[in-house]
């Protein structure tokens, strides 16, 4: 995605991330349709959509029907956080990244909890397909980077942003992968 503090601050709002996610996974929508996803009023969603547009995340989509509704679409099919190319991670950039990451992790945890609370009602096929894995690795930075790249390569053809729903198998559903590759701090060093 970006190492721009202003863009990150624009994203660092749960409603904006939810709206952006809605537009990226399900396609163009009105503020009213986005309001159904985020639980806000259409006027509040309109404000958040304008903020996302101001920072280049969304734009007006072609009108539908009689053209009286304003339809929005995502400009990016996904996003990622990264350190700046020059390696200078400023306090402002770190705080903005932390805010976005915190919201993303909170929402991911909530969706996982929602799944777990109703998983008994899923078919055996879906229950056995789902998995939660926790593994501790012993790897250097190059190996960790390689692991991430190999996993990304495996996931790429299945990403909802790029896969044509008409070409997916019958019964395909949205599914999530929460992957976190990070080095643990050395023993004795506490996070500040």
From TrEMBL:
Q: Does the keyword Transcription regulation apply?
A: yes
Question: What domain of life does the UniProt record list for this protein's source?
Answer: Bacteria
Q: Describe the location of the HTH arsR-type domain by residue ranges.
A: 6-95
Q: What keywords sit in the KW lines?
A: DNA-binding, Transcription, Transcription regulation
Question: Molecular function terms in GO for this entry?
Answer: DNA binding; DNA-binding transcription factor activity
Q: What Pfam families does this protein map onto?
A: HTH_20
Membrane-crossing residues? none
Extract the Gene3D superfamilies matched here: Winged helix-like DNA-binding domain superfamily/Winged helix DNA-binding domain
* The name this protein goes by in its record: Transcriptional regulator
| Species of provenance | Acrocarpospora corrugata
């Amino acid at each position: 995605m970006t190492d721009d503090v202003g863009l990150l601050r624009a994203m660092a709002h749960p409603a904006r991330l939810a709206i952006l996610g809605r537009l990226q996974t399900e396609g163009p929508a009105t503020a009213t349709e986005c309001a159904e996803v985020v639980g806000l009023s259409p006027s509040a969603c309109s404000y958040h959509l304008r903020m996302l547009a101001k920072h280049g995340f969304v734009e007006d989509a072609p009108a539908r029907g009689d053209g009286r509704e304003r339809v929005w679409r995502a400009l990016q099919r996904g996003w990622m956080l990264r350190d700046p190319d020059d390696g200078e991670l400023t306090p402002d950039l770190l705080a903005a990244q932390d805010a976005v990451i915190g919201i993303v992790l909170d929402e991911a945890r909530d969706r996982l909890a929602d799944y777990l609370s109703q998983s008994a009602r899923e078919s055996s096929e879906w229950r056995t397909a789902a998995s939660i894995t926790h593994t501790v690795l012993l790897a250097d930075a190059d190996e960790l980077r390689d692991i991430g790249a190999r996993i990304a390569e495996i996931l790429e053809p299945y990403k909802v942003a790029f896969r044509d729903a008409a070409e997916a198998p019958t019964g395909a559903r949205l599914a999530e992968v929460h992957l976190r590759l990070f080095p643990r701090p050395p023993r004795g060093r506490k996070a500040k």
